[in-house]
Write a structure and sequence with these properties.
The chain is of the alpha+beta class. It has one domain. About 20% of the residues lie in helices and about 25% in strands. The protein is built from two helices and nine strands. The strands form two sheets. Strands 2, 3, 4, 5, 6, 7 and 8 form a seven-stranded antiparallel beta sheet that branches. A two-stranded antiparallel sheet has the order 1-9. Helix 1 packs antiparallel against helix 2. The longest helix is centred in the N-terminal third of the chain and has 22 residues. The chain is globular.
């Protein structure tokens, strides 16, 4: 989301939206995971319906039925071991115009059932920095958006916690980029190195 340079009120609204999102994740980190997930869904639905910076087009907000999600699955929450990688810069492609500069700083390794997975952790070079973890999986293009979903975006408040050796990945909190809800947004897409071969049926999904 980018503020309007012609409308200070729009920028203040964006400030408020990001503060609320940051407060939401701070509250979620203090809660039992399933209860935090329910609170996360309810709060995001309310922001989508009522906030001036909602990703939804304004005419669609009042009738918005809520975002679709799979049921909570505790097996989709895990502590992923972070291994170092050679730091190098990339540009993350967007759904529309532009790209986002970032640098790789780690690789989060995890096991999900019999599947051994890994996701690269990116540090954004815009917004004053922040950890960004987009991912793709085998549901993309059918049950979820073809360009992938987001797990973490700490520059905008989406932060589930970490220690010095691991990062919390909870795929139940996966969510779609704003461009899924309105084509006026140009959103970063998941790089190919973060596309998982298995389906991840947790988190936000497309409406059925």
């Amino acid at each position: 989301m980018q503020p309007s340079i012609d409308d200070p009120g729009s920028t203040l609204d964006l400030w408020d939206y990001r503060r609320r999102m940051s407060d939401l994740y701070a509250r979620v980190r203090q809660m039992e995971p399933a209860a935090g997930w329910s609170h996360w869904i309810a709060t995001r639905n309310e922001l989508f319906r009522t906030h001036p910076q909602s990703p939804l087009p304004a005419p669609n907000r009042a009738s918005f039925p809520g975002l679709e999600h799979w049921d909570y699955d505790p097996d989709l929450r895990l502590a992923a071991l972070v291994q170092p990688v050679p730091e190098n810069e990339i540009r993350v492609s967007h759904s529309g115009a532009g790209s986002t500069p970032a640098r790789r700083f780690g690789r989060a390794l995890f096991r999900l059932g019999s599947f051994d997975g890994a996701l690269t952790l990116y540090w954004l070079k815009d917004y004053g920095g922040g950890v960004f973890v987009p991912f793709g999986d085998a549901t993309n293009g059918t049950e979820t958006y073809g360009g992938g979903r987001y797990l973490l975006d700490t520059a905008k408040g989406a932060d589930l916690g970490h220690d010095r050796e691991s990062v919390t990945l909870d795929f139940n909190f996966s969510y779609h980029p704003s461009c899924v809800h309105d084509a006026r947004w140009s959103c970063p897409l998941s790089p190919s190195e973060n596309r998982l071969s298995m389906p991840i049926r947790g988190g936000e999904r497309l409406a059925r």
